[in-house]
Amino acid sequence: MWKFTVRRILIMIPQIILLSVLVFLMAKAMPGDALSGLIDPNVDPERLEELREKMGLNDPWYVQYVDWVKNLFHGDLGTSFRYKMPVTELIGRIVNTFWLSLLSLLLIYLISIPLGIISGRYHDTWIDRAITGYTYIGFATPLFIFGLVMLWFFGFSLGLFPTGGSVSPGLTPGTFEYFLSKINHLLLPALSIALIATVGTVQYLRNEIIDTKQKDFILTARAKGASESRVYNRHIFRNSLLPIAAFFGYELTGLIGGTVFIEKIFGYPGMGQLFLESITTRDYTVVTSLVLLYGCATIIGALLSDIILSLVDPRIRIK
Amino acid sequence: MEKDKSVTAQNEQVVVETADVSSKEENPTGLRILWREIVRDKTAFVSLIFLILITTFVYGISFILKQDEIVTVDLFSIHQAPNSEFWLGTDYGGRDIFGQLIIGTRNSLSIGILVTLMTGVIGIIFGLVAGYFGGQVDNILMRILDFFMILPFLMIVIVFVAIVPKYTIVSFSLIMTAFLWMGIARLIRSKALAERELDYVQASKTLGSSNLKIMFTQVLPNLSSIIIVNMTLNLAANIGLESGLSFLGFGFPESTPSLGTLLSYATNPQTLEYRWWIGCLLQF
Questions:
Q1: Which of B25, B33, B121, B207 sits in a 20 to 30 Å window from A249, CA-based?
Q2: Between residues 187 and 226 of chain A, which touch chain B (CB distance below 8 Å)?
Q3: CB-CB: which of B8, B153, B163 is closest to A257?
Q4: Residue B26: exposed, middle, or buried by beta-carbon count in 10 A (0-12, 13-18, 19+)?
Q5: What are the respective helix, strand and coil percentages of chain B, to the nearest 5?
Q6: If you write DSSP's letter for every residue of B137-168 in order, what string do you get?
Q7: SS3 state at A180
């Protein structure tokens, strides 16, 4: 187990290095540099050139890359051109995105596991057909369209949920009301993500259960006289859950893309919205930091998936 | 499982079939079987007719409609409700929504097909080489693929769209393709790995066929069914992605409408509340 994990982590290292090189080269390809934001008519161009030389902006790219990585290790991601503050302070918003992803993930599993089990257990009945019908619709509907419909229906028409922001104004952090307001703002975006993202898991679980049902060990269990509920809950369910557990990490990374759309639609101040704002205002230090951050999140998600998979499925560890 | 999927799979299969029959190495008997199956299955047949109608309608009408004319701003007809001149009303620039819908659908569809074909070609070649040769080649190619897999797709594409100075349908498709070929490559590779162990490959080798010939004329046709299913699903996903990017404002400018651009008009809260005819695009 440990051997596998350590080897898996070792594979991660070159990936992270490559990712950082790519992100750095992307940053170089973008117009403007750390000083462009400071240009004002009173500054002598020669002085700027001097500053550039001093900051190492005229060095070859690999020297700059090493400097950049050194700064990264010191926790310095650069300064935002637009907000004139360190990027590390700006990305404090990650907390919002984190809660949104967590709640979505929770809802995804709350919805998909019962639906998958029901439709797998009673397959080819009307209830299974209804559930598969739902998954087809879910597959066909792009997330952002669904988000818009939810916003329009529950937010505007029914007025049940707030239509923007992450918390109502005028509440002090730490109070119970503040917490409730946060949840209230989170619920609609998270539900929109969950209802769409869940369909893949439902399908997987359903197919997995139908497959497992026909295996020999289930026949053995029945022959031993295990009750129907025991066969389903202990034998089939536990075996069918393997791929679902394994996909947990990928689900996590898949959410990253989803939150960008949803944050934009619901005006939810998180990382995705910050990223879109920074791109449109050409705030490149923020953009590169965010790409790097999301890349690392994806790597960790893949790592988690593999580790969970090796935990639940011993066959993988041997390789 | 096969049976449950068949309805959608077949519907979508049809899309690619009609779109790029020529590019597929599918032998005629296979096509004939497919045709017989479709005619027998009522749902699939109706869907096929429906799809052909939409595609010919969209591509046909877009020959008559001029894109430049439709996207020209007309200040006298801003925010009109649907009437006889503007069938679906007008947007905030006084542009006809019906025309934009047709042009937008055409643009989205074209990009979807283009990206699907390009990712298909790259993915098939990459996966086939990795899977057929196996061993060290496979190992190296898979590490490259792993790296592409961990890139945060949406963000990288948005950054590239921002960097590329002037972009057209082709360059946009190229950017999308560069980060989308991994899925099909992985699939083909795993199937090719299994295929190379089969007797017919060994037999062909003994007879002295070159690796290239075995790969593309013998292994590939055996994987065609899985390629078709995968590519049809990709087509749908790619159209969705393109609309998504345009929706976020990183697809095409307003002068080249796509389904996503049109949708983003509808996010304006005022539009949502008062101008239902723009919001109605959501129905599409």
A1: B121
A2: 207, 210-211
A3: B153
A4: middle
A5: 75, 0, 25
A6: HHHHHHHHHHHHHHS-HHHHHHHHHHHSSS--
A7: helix
DSSP string, B232-248: HHHHHHHHHHHHHHHHH
How far apart are the CA of B100 and the nearest CA of chain A, in angstroms? 18
> What are A79's strand-pairing partners?
A86
CA dist A29 and B172 (Å) reads 17
Look at domain A92-314 and name its CATH class: mainly alpha
Query: A83-126 pLDDT, tens per residue?
Result: 767 777 777 777 788 888 888 888 988 888 888 888 888 888 88
Q: Are B150 and A19 a contacting pair at CB < 8 A? A: yes
Domain ranges of chain A: 2-87, 92-314
Q: Name the helix (H) or strand (E) containing A183.
A: helix A176-213
Which of A32, A17, A29, A26 shows the shortest CA–CA distance to A66? A17
For residue B92, count CB atoms less than 10 angstroms from its CB and return exposed for 0-12, middle for 13-18, buried for 19 or more: middle
Q: For residue range A15-60, list pLDDT tens digits in order.
A: 888 888 888 888 777 766 655 555 566 667 677 677 667 666 666 7
Tokens 């080489």 locate to B129
Q: In the block, which residue shows the tokens 């509440």?
A: A171
Tokens of A265: 């639609």
Q: Which of A152, A163, A264 to mutate to test the interface with B (most CBs of B within 10 A)?
A: A152
When scoring B1, B3, B4 by the number of chain A Cβ atoms within 10 A, the one with the most, hence best to mutate, is: B4
Whether the Cβ atoms of residue B197 and residue B133 lie closer than 8 Å to each other? no
Q: Specify the 3-state DSSP secondary structure of B200.
A: helix
B153: which 2 tokens?
A: 């797709």
